[in-house]
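Here is one chain, start to finish.
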Amino acid sequence: MCNLYRLKNSNEEVAQLFDAYVGEVGNAGGGEAYPGYPGIVLVNGALRSMVWGFPFKPRDSKPGSKPKPVNNARSDKLDSFMWRFSFQERRCLIPVSAFAEAEGEKGAKTRTWFSLPNQEIFAVAGIWRDTPEWGPAYTMIMTEACIHVADVHDRMPVILKRQDWREWLNGPPDAANLLCRPYPDLMVCDRTTDSWVRRSATAAG
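Its structure:
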């Protein structure tokens, strides 16, 4: 699963690449994104700020407890109740410069980053919905890992090639579902010594 990604470019630069306009973005964009915190997505031709993760509270939650963000949706579970209607009706693009997975021993995990060669920004498949708890929220679609990611994690975000952006956003669900596959081309793996746990933003809720 993916719990961290970054976007290096400004919102204006991202909007230009995606042939979109900058909508309601607030202070989001141009940094690292974490579950439960604001991130930037492309919806209906505009960049918008949304919380990364659909709010979820287990049935056995204590009274007054806050929901937790479910920030990944498995591609083989998109017909489940939690994801079905968003996948059918509200798909989005998530601009990403690189995504990270935790690697190493428990308590000493470090950040391993994955990106695309010669691409400052690429698009990851997402879905979104309005929520009573946090307002608009999005989640990232995950599929089986490609050969470049499999040594670190068995799943990875669905990376969409530019020619598939329109199909993901506006195509029928059956066609969009066919795009949920491991990335077939070269990826760059950057293993670092940076600690996995490092946060400085303000979470939703």
